[in-house]
């Protein structure tokens, strides 16, 4: 299996809010790398040298990974994408669920991450993963082919968020969705640095500004938001989000 990818990003200038992706869908935005986007400081990406943290044994318990994974509702034959795949913690179980006829487009901007993914795929005898070496402003995805695009704690690191969201939106089928995991900024007990968290309000602000609407959410994970977005012209109905204050109260009561 060829080596290739991790999708995250870098840094740079302050730019102002721009039109919806539905208004600029014929061409990608002309965007410089950002230090700030819509009042949010853009975080630095994780290096491939920290890849072992992604597959730490305690991750399942800390993040209720299986519970979150089940919400993806994967089926055989689907074309799915793990954007910012790293060494494949999520990629390999996705590949098993969409087999035998489905495939996973595994995108990363760090070749070293893709090499680690390729090695893990070989050891697991998984052959329906297509590694893609993305760029900081382009995930190199085919247009209109993706049923579900997964991003786990990676979107907040994109230095070119508008360019990336334009490409992501373009890659989705009419009923395709983005499944977005981000650590909750509203919860100070989540043991993650503040720059690597996002609030639900900020996520919706950025996604709505780029032609994506909220169509589903799952609010029972211990540390993370899980939000599903579709293109703004999708037949899937838009929903109103549950207030994070209510979510945290429910989690506290159930725990």
UniProtKB/TrEMBL annotation:
Pfam families the UniProt entry points to: Methyltransf_31
Record's keyword annotation contains Transferase: yes
Residue ranges of domain Methyltransferase in the record: 76-188
Superkingdom of source: Bacteria
Keyword field: Methyltransferase, Transferase
The EC number(s) this enzyme carries: 2.1.1.163
Protein's GO biological process: methylation
InterPro entries named among the record's database cross-references: Methyltranfer_dom, SAM-dependent_MTases_sf
Broadest EC class assigned to this enzyme: transferase
Molecular function, one GO term: demethylmenaquinone methyltransferase activity
Protein name: Demethylmenaquinone methyltransferase
Organism in which the protein naturally occurs: Crateriforma conspicua
Lineage summary: Bacteria, Pseudomonadati, Planctomycetota, Planctomycetia, Planctomycetales
Gene from which this protein is expressed: ubiE_4
